[in-house]
């Protein structure tokens, strides 16, 4: 075997796993297709801050410096991860195309050649692949259509009318910045609302609490057209893996009419976007805040049965007797914050690998 442990992905999850595995024994090799660690965060928009508190978002073994504030800005978080990866064995600029079985372990097929390892940890991110719905007539739309992951800076939207599709975390986050910018008219298209939090109650109780907190914090947003969520946040997290939306100016923009609510999109008709209630608008730009999926079909879709969300059947420190040494890490999301949950899971994963290695 070339390696005992290879971790695919040098984002927060992969680095957390590598740190914990290293402490428990073998020094893993961390492979990433990008030329730098924390590539996903480096590629996110300029206004981005963590939406989970610094105290709950740190990696195992290293707190985020107090100077970064309660909700660290993108570049501070990237600098923190860069420092955190110091001393780790990194092989950057290396894409893993597929993973296959080999005697006593796994072969990771690379651009040039391959790597063999007793343990392969896939930490390629739950947000690796943007989901872009296809609406009827989309090809006839002359404006710009982008995914929320491609949004860079509100300044580029100055004077432009923008339709954001999807009331989730990304949609609400972006609208908070767009509302405060020189962007033109703003619309939010939502088929159903999200809840906008508080631990340890049955999901339905937590749903009730979160709804009560939202009402206390914002009043009844449905008066401004923001649809009531069909499912409570904790139930939605359990069923769809979709997390809660964090307000950073969106609710105020909705109440002042800076953002106008629209229901779901029915179709595109040339320059116009037509909604299910028969109304329409003519935006210059459509931003699809329509989510992400892990996108691990090529890597491991031939090894395990992925569900309709593209998720593997075992994640974190969980493993399958049919796939000894194959691990999926950081692909699950949590309403408590992915980083918070992955910190604990990293230590559990390291213990599981150490146990399996001890035979
Ligand atoms: C806009 C946004 C904001 C978020 N904010 C928060 C927050 O505040 N708090 C929180 O807890 N969570 C947040 N999340 C959720 C989640 O924590 C982050 O997405 C986090 O970056 C996930 O870390 P990760 O390491 O799992 O994935 P990523 O950071 O995406 O890292 C995966 C790495 O794998 C590499 N890779 C992928 N495929 C391959 C391959 N085939 N071969 C080699 N390398 C590969 C990629 O280059 C990438 O570097 C946010 C998500 C988004 C989209």
Give the biggest sheet.
7 strands, mixed
Protein structure class: alpha/beta
The CATH architecture assignment of the largest domain turns out to be 3-Layer(bba) Sandwich
Order of helices and strands: EHEHHEEEEEEEHEHHHEEEEEEHEH
Shape, per Cα inertia axes: globular
Q: Considering DSSP H and I runs of 4 or more, what fraction of the residues is helical?
A: 25-40%
Descriptive account of the structure:
This protein has 359 residues and is an alpha/beta fold. It is 26% helix and 20% strand. It folds into two domains: 3-128 and 292-358, FAD/NAD(P)-binding domain; 132-288, FAD/NAD(P)-binding domain (3-Layer(bba) Sandwich). The chain has helices at 12-24, 39-42, 74-84, 169-179, 203-218, 233-240, 250-255, 297-300, 338-358; strands spanning 3-8, 29-31, 89-91, 96-102, 105-110, 114-122, 129-130, 144-147, 162-165, 186-189, 259-262, 265-269, 272-275, 280-281, 285-288, 292-293, 326-328. The longest helix is centred in the C-terminal third of the chain and has 21 residues, at 338-358. The mean pLDDT is 92. Bound molecules: flavin-adenine dinucleotide. Flavin-adenine dinucleotide binds at residues 8-14, 31-34, 39-41, 44, 50-52, 57, 95-96, 123-125, 127-128, 170, 299, 330, 337-339.
């Amino acid at each position: 075997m070339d390696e005992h442990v290879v971790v695919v992905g040098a984002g927060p999850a992969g680095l957390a796993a590598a740190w914990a595995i290293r402490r428990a024994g073998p020094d893993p090799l961390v492979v990433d297709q990008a030329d730098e660690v924390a590539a996903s965060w480096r590629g996110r928009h300029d206004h981005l801050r963590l939406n989970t508190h610094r105290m709950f978002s740190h990696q195992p073994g290293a707190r985020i410096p107090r100077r970064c504030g309660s909700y660290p800005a993108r570049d501070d978080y990237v600098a923190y991860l860069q420092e955190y990866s110091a001393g780790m064995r990194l092989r950057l600029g290396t894409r893993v195309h597929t993973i296959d079985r080999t005697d006593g372990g796994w072969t990771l097929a690379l651009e040039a050649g391959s790597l063999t390892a007793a343990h392969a940890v896939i930490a390629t991110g739950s947000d690796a692949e943007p989901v872009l719905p296809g609406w009827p007539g989309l090809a006839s739309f002359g404006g710009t259509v982008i995914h929320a992951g491609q949004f860079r800076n509100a300044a580029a939207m100055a004077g432009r009318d923008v339709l954001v599709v999807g009331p989730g975390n990304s949609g609400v986050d972006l609208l908070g910045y767009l509302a405060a910018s020189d962007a033109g008219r703003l619309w939010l298209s939502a088929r159903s609302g999200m809840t906008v939090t508080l631990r340890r109650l049955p999901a339905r109780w937590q749903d009730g609490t979160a709804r009560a907190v939202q009402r206390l914090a914002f009043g009844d947003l449905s008066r401004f057209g923001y649809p009531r969520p069909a499912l409570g946040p904790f139930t939605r997290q359990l069923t769809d893996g979709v997390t809660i939306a964090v307000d950073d100016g969106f609710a105020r923009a909705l109440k002042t009419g800076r953002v106008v609510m629209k229901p779901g999109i029915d179709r595109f008709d040339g320059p116009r976007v037509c909604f299910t209630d028969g109304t329409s608008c003519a935006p210059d730009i459509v931003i699809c805040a329509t989510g992400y999926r892990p996108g691990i079909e090529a890597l491991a879709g031939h090894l395990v049965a992925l569900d309709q969300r593209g998720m593997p059947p075992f994640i974190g420190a969980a493993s399958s007797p049919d796939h000894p040494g194959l691990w999926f890490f950081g692909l699950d999301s949590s309403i408590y914050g992915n980083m918070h949950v992955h910190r604990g899971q990293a230590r559990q994963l390291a213990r599981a690998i150490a146990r399996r290695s001890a035979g």
